[in-house]
Amino acid sequence: EKGGYEHFMLKEIFEQPRSIADCMRGRLDAKNGRLVLGGLRDYMNKFQNADRIIITACGTSWHAGLVAEYLFEEFARIPVEVEYASEFRYRNPVISEKDFVIAISQSGETADTLAAIELAKSKGATIFGVCNVVGSSIARATHAGSYTHAGPEIGVASTKAFTAQISVLTMMALMLGYQRGTLTESKYVQLLNELETIPGKVERTLKMNPNIEAISAEYKNARNFLYLGRGYNFPVALEGALKLKEISYIHAEGYPAAEMKHGPIALIDEEMPVVFIATKDNSYEKVVSNIQEVKARKGKIIAVVTEGDTVVRGMADHVLEVPDTAEAFVPLLSVIPLQILSYHIAVMRGCNVDQPRNLAKSVTVE
Ligand code: M6R
Known about the structure:
The chain is of the alpha/beta class. It contains 14 helices and 12 strands. Helix 6 links the parallel strand 5 and strand 6 (126-131). It is globular, with a radius of gyration of 20 Å. It binds 5-amino-5-deoxy-1-O-phosphono-D-mannitol (M6R).
């Protein structure tokens, strides 16, 4: 059942080239410049004309929502708010019929997310679900939706569901941008073609597994970890930190790299490993200066970089390479080494990676 892998989590990490391809199958046809999400067809008008997109979710699914905020705003120019379902439901939020609400949930059973949906529905908003489990409560409670088709995820730590959620949200953002005319036809087609290469690039990223295992051995006794990224990689930093804390029980914080100097920088000394996501994108130069700041304080630096990077390689203690891609698609690659890092550290610490203490796969109580 674990397909020869020692744990479900590792199996699910390695399934990602296939699960992402499954998610795009029958939807993305780059050769013919076509992208269709069946679930969106009847609601495209509402989506296109929405005043605002509200995304609600918990945990890792909320991180996928944060990535989507960057995607929707970049490609479709519609303002986005990303809300923890538990806060949203109790805040008496301002919601109207012109809002398009996207609820993201792997299990489709998360109590807070379900309650947030019911609230938004009662105010007349359109609710769209991005769920993995077919026929789940959230899938049934929404007006429409697109399944992530990642297949069953057994490990409590979400991995392949996260990349499938981002894949669906990316396709939604591209469709929306194209329909609204905020994304030109040529750019659209270029992005569709690039999106199609992602499963192969994930496969290449997975080849780093042995390197990451070696690095993990060096850091398995760390007491704390900091994860820093900017732009599309800011949510990836949050996700990397969550993965590490939930399965290895090492305290970890994710931050937008620029926020470091507003507090967390005080934590940095030679005992503090800092994971930077420093891929070649619009914020690369800025991240490089943040790396210098950490280095000057003797922090240990593990950096996720774009293949062929030499600048960060010269500064970091360890680099983990991911293939080059469009800036908007980087999270699908940059999260992979962080999943693998947390996995190995947890295994080396003797933790039960598939069933971490105090956690359940679906959180059906608030
Ligand atoms: O099933 P959901 O996507 O609604 O679950 C949300 C969170 O409970 C979930 O992502 C949790 O944070 C994971 N254990 C993270 O790995």
